[in-house]
Design a protein that fits this description.
42% of the residues lie in helices and 21% in strands. The chain is of the alpha/beta class. The protein is elongated, with a radius of gyration of 26 Å.
Length: 289
């Protein structure tokens, strides 16, 4: 039996894309070439891998089992390619980083920018998520590095502490909460709209946790949240570095909440235990820690 990488790629593409046409587009091949490769794989395995009885091709039970082995073959090819590239250049082929939007992106982008200027051969991908979404993306995208303020739910990761972040409970200076001359109670806050960022998590242990506000508005990111705060729509927590200018102008004011108006986030950088970090990953870790 002689199963080739082309056979494996074709079956994998069909399984993911769902149709011959979509698989052909993904592989940059003609419809006929894809069909020929699939027939060739069936001939080599002497198995019916495709169910042709319906409107669309489907993998038979035998096809699904062969697909598992094909994907192992493709994974081995990727590992070999990566090992060879690293041995030739010293750079890993790819570096995927996901970071929490609570954390300032400036140090990370500076580290990545230095690699780009140096001409690193590594293909670098950086994506921002929020709170619980960071770990989800780390797992889903098989990222190499994760920067988050939440303790991960998964085991088997190595952590490095980064600089702490101070968050403040604020509202616009014209908001009634900001004009109060007495310490604000939980009941005072509950009478107003709370502004949050999508992906809130009780593991943050904010002093306002458990308050049931009059309403909650979840924004896409902290810049949108800051604009909503400046517009006087409600109150909420904001990282100090995000609203430094508005705080300096006293456009946003720290609320005198009796439960505490400051909270410190402790971000950490994580990578998988036992994973060998490549040259680019090591440089990013060193720059941030």
């Amino acid at each position: 039996m002689h199963v080739t990488l082309d056979h494996a790629r074709t079956l994998d593409a069909l399984a993911r894309a769902g149709t011959l046409q979509a698989a052909a587009r993904e592989l940059h091949k003609s419809h006929t070439s894809v069909l020929h490769a699939l027939r060739g794989l069936e001939a080599q395995t002497e198995l019916d891998l495709l169910d042709r009885s319906g409107y669309r091709l489907k993998l038979t039970s035998a096809g699904l089992r062969v697909l598992e082995h094909c994907r192992r073959l493709l994974a081995s090819e990727r590992a070999l390619t990566e090992a060879c590239l690293e041995m030739r250049t010293g750079w890993e082929p790819s570096l995927r980083i996901v970071f929490d939007g609570v954390v300032s992106s400036a140090p990370l982008l500076e580290a990545v920018g230095a690699l780009v200027k140096e001409g690193a051969a590594t293909r670098i991908s950086v994506s921002g998520e929020f709170l619980g979404g960071v770990e989800e993306a780390f797992e889903r995208d098989e990222a190499d590095l994760m920067i988050t303020v939440l303790p991960p739910r998964r085991e088997g990761v190595v952590a490095k502490r980064l600089a702490p972040i101070r968050a403040l409970l604020v509202a616009h200076r014209g908001h009634s909460l900001a004009r109060s001359r007495r310490p604000l109670s939980r009941e005072d806050l509950a009478a107003h709209v709370l502004l949050t960022v999508r992906g809130g998590d009780p593991r943050l242990e904010l002093p306002t946790q458990g308050i049931e506000p009059r309403g909650t508005i979840a924004l896409a990111d902290f810049e949108a949240k800051k604009r909503a705060l400046v517009a006087g729509i409600g109150f909420g927590w904001i990282p100090e570095h995000v609203a430094a200018r508005e705080l300096a102008r006293r456009e946003l004011r720290v609320l005198g909440f009796e439960g505490g108006s400051e909270h410190t986030f402790q971000p950490r950088l994580y990578h998988r235990q036992g994973a060998r970090l490549g040259r680019a990953a090591r440089r990013v870790v060193e720059a941030l820690t």
